[in-house]
Amino acid sequence: MIRRTLLHVYPSFEVGGSQRRFVRIANHFGGDYRHLIVALDGHTAAASLLSSDLDASLLPLAPAPPGLAGRLRLYRDLLRHWRPDLLVTANWGSIEWAMANLACAVPHLHLEDGFGPDEADGQLSRRVWARRLLLRRSRVVLPSRTLWRLAHDCWRLPERCLHYVPNGIDLARFAGARGRGQGGPGGPVPVIGTVAALRPEKNLARLLDAFALVRQSCLVRLVIAGDGPLRGALEARAEALGIAPDVEFLGHCARPEEVLSGLDVFVLSSDTEQMPLSLLEAMALGCAVVATDVGDVRAMLPAEQQDFVVPRSAEDLAAAMSGLLNDGGLRDRLGRANEEAVRRDYDEHEMFTAYRRLYDA
């Protein structure tokens, strides 16, 4: 059997939600495909998560000539040289490859997972028009209903182009890993935490501010797993707030379940998300959740959790966190409801089936 060659173009191949999803899909399919991977910023940490027996290559990218025309010419030449069976682009940062592909007509699959801080509060009109024009003949994968409606109603892409494929997780990996539930009055110090890339749109400064408010009234610890360009600034903010002794920055964590299983409360403080993988993983481990009301987060969580999906403010996060820290029974009930929801709705095998169809189409 001749294997299809898939060219994956990422703005960055650092470890993040979309990169971790691709790694799971590629590792699951094994040798069924040949993967060529381009990281436009040269960062390739997620490659360490790929199975060693995959036919996967990181392709170095020569410096592009100055200007859009020069970059498009380079990308067209590379598409013609590599001759992939499928071009897979990820998010706005790779949209110029879709533009270059107009001259090459390689079958195109575009993955849209969400937006950076510049579009957290609304769409930029030039990007709307670019997506509207460049993706009309592509297949566009959207992991959230919020994004699907945006692509249909705002970008005005035809329904035949749009594929809603929710993220899924390896439920067996998280089975039996629970280790929380010991914090609270009279017991060990409870632990709040999150798993996130340390980037502006995750707004971990908001989480630090909320934690400082909670810390005024109770003993509690905060753990943050993940790395990124804002780590130094966030550590400095923790120092300035006087909470640094109670905050632990763990850096990149290859096995997030080891962090999540030790939490009493998982917190998502983002300005913009669509279908965060870390939230699904926390739910699978039976964590109670406090989250900002972004993307599909409210729809992902069961009815019992709705009061803990809050506006994007440190004060609202702090109030919700305090409510859970003071009620261990409520935390346990919410954790059980979250675990049941994720096991019912987000098994990764349905995601694998959908991507098999998309890769082979």
Defining traits:
361 residues, alpha/beta, Rossmann fold
Describe, in short, the structure shown:
This protein has helices at 17-29, 67-82, 95-100, 125-134, 145-153, 171-174, 204-215, 231-241, 256-260, 277-284, 297-300, 314-325, 328-345, 348-360; strands spanning 4-10, 33-39, 55-58, 86-90, 108-111, 139-142, 162-164, 191-195, 221-225, 247-251, 265-268, 288-292, 309-310. With 361 residues, it is α/β, with parallel strands linked by helices. The strands form 2 sheets. The chain has a 7-stranded parallel β-sheet, with helices on both faces. Strands 10-9-8-11-12-13 form a 6-stranded parallel β-sheet, with helices on both faces.
> DSSP strand (E) fraction?
15-25%
Overall domain count:
2
How much helix is in the residues?
A: 25-40%
Distance between the termini: 16 Å
- The number of strands is 13
Strand order of the largest sheet: 3-2-1-4-5-6-7
CATH architecture field of the largest domain? 3-Layer(aba) Sandwich
Largest sheet composition: 7 strands, parallel
> Ranges with pLDDT <50 over ≥5 residues?
181-186
Rg calc: 21 Å
User: So how many helices?
Assistant: 14
Q: Give the overall shape.
A: globular
By CATH, the topology of the largest domain is: Rossmann fold
Structural class call reads: alpha/beta
CATH class category name of the largest domain: Alpha Beta
H/E series: EHEEHEHEHEHEHEHEHEHEHEHEHHH
CATH superfamily of the largest domain: Glycogen Phosphorylase B
What is the typical, i.e. mean, pLDDT? 93
List the helices and strands and how they pair.
Blueprint: E1 4-10, H1 17-29, E2 33-39, E3 55-58, H2 67-82, E4 86-90, H3 95-100, E5 108-111, H4 125-134, E6 139-142, H5 145-153, E7 162-164, H6 171-174, E8 191-195, H7 204-215, E9 221-225, H8 231-241, E10 247-251, H9 256-260, E11 265-268, H10 277-284, E12 288-292, H11 297-300, E13 309-310, H12 314-325, H13 328-345, H14 348-360
Parallel strand pairs: 1-2, 1-4, 2-3, 4-5, 5-6, 6-7, 8-9, 8-11, 9-10, 11-12, 12-13
Helix pairs in contact: 7-8, 7-12, 10-13
